[in-house]
Amino acid sequence: MQKATIKDVSERSGFSITTISRVLNGNYPVKKETREKIMKAIDELNFSRNSSARNLRTKKSNLIGLVVADINNPYYSKIAKKIDDGLFEKGYNLLVCNTDESEEKEKRILSTLQDKDVDAIVISPAAKNIELLRQLTDAGTRIVLIDRNMGILDIPFVGSDNFSESKILTEYLIQQGHQKIMFVSGTDKAITAQDRLFGYKAALEENNLQFDEKNVVKGYYKQEDAYKNTYTFLTNNLKSDEPCTAIFSSNNLMTIGIIQAIHELNLRIPQDISLVSFGQLDSQEIIEPKVTCIKQNIEQLAKSTLEKTIEALDDNKSNIDSNIIRDSLEIGTSVKNLNK
C-alpha cells in the first residue's frame, strides 16, 4: 500500500499544507478545532507523525521557481537566463514568474509555486512578506533571496550592498561639485529602493548638504513613470533660483525614461544636467554620452545564486550566509565637473 503524503492529509482534512506543517512542527499557534481535524486525518491515513517539515516531501519535482520584480528589465532577464542554464545542467527546470512589483501578484505566484511542489524558490521580493516566506519554509520549501534582502537570518541572500553603493555614486556627484541632486526613487516597499535612498541621504549628510524631500521623485522602478515624473519635475525645477544640476536614477530602466524626458525638454547631458544610474544600461557601450553608473556584476550574482540554490537543495550542504556581490563604479561622460 502506498504511503500517505502530506497532500493526502491536506485533501482529507481540508486544510492547507502550511497549516498541516505547523501542526506537525508545533512552532505556530493553531486553533484546537483545526488541530483535531488534522490529527484525525493523520490517524485515518496512517501518516507518519515523526516527519519533520523538511522531510514531508516524498519525491522531488525537479522544478525551481524564479520570482522576479520585472522580467522586462535586462538585469532580471539576464539573471534568469544564466540561472536557467545552470539548473538545466543539474537536471532541474526553471519556472520564471514576474510580479511586476505587485505584492498581491507575488502572493498568488508563491501560492501557485507551492501547489506545484517546486523544490526551491529563488525570489526578488516585491514587498517585505516575511510571514509568507516563513510559511513556505515551514512547509519545507527552500528559499533563496536575490537582489532584495529582507533580513531573515535563516534564509540565504545574494545581492548588492545597495546602501554603500548608492552612497558612493552620490559622493561622486558631490566631488564633481554638485550640491542640488534630484533623486528618482523606486517602489516604496522594495528594500533596494529604501537602501538606495538612505545611501543618497547619508552622502549628503556627511558632506554637510541638506536633504530636501522635494528633490525626491517617484519612478517606481518603471521607465514610463520615471519619464513622466522627471519631465514634470524638471519643467518646474529649471525655473527655480537654485535648480538641481544632477539626477541620480536608482535603477537602469528608469534611467532610460529620464534620458527621454531630458531630450524632450531640449536639454543636453552633461552640459545642461548631469546624470548617474544605479545599474548599467543594456546598450551602455554604444549610448552617448556614456552614463556614469554602478555597474552591477550580473555574472557573479547569477553564479552565486545558482550555487546557493543547489546548496539549499542539499540538506547536508545548506549554507544560510549572505553573499554580498561587489559591484563597481564605472565613470562615463554623463557628469559635468562644476569645480572647473
From TrEMBL:
InterPro entries: Cro/C1-type_HTH (IPR001387), HTH_LacI (IPR000843), Lambda_DNA-bd_dom_sf (IPR010982), Peripla_BP/Lac1_sug-bd_dom (IPR001761), Peripla_BP_I (IPR028082)
Boundaries of every HTH lacI-type domain copy: 4-58
Name recorded for this polypeptide: Hexuronate operon repressor, LacI family
Domain of life: Bacteria
Keywords: DNA-binding, Transcription, Transcription regulation
SUPFAM superfamilies, A to Z: lambda repressor-like DNA-binding domains, Periplasmic binding protein-like I
HTH cro/C1-type domain location: 5-52
Keyword Methyltransferase recorded: no
GO terms assigned for molecular function: DNA-binding transcription factor activity; transcription cis-regulatory region binding
Signal peptide bounds: none
